[in-house]
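INFO  loader      accepted 1 record
INFO  loader      residues=66
INFO  predictor   begin
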Amino acid sequence: MDPHYTGLARDYEPWTEQEDALLGTDIDRVIATKLKRSSVAVGMRRKKLGIPSAKARRPAPAQSDS
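INFO  predictor   done
INFO  writer      dumping tokens
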């Protein structure tokens, strides 16, 4: 059995514009839960559309001058 298979039938349904709009707004795991899709499906769709991950867009932590 595929280790990434989650049993979520939604992974095979077409994506809506509203779902696409959520991609990259939070980490894939959180978006997957909201959309009832697997995090693998969310990550693959986000990458296919060229949307950076929410992690990649977070600002770097401020460095202290100590």
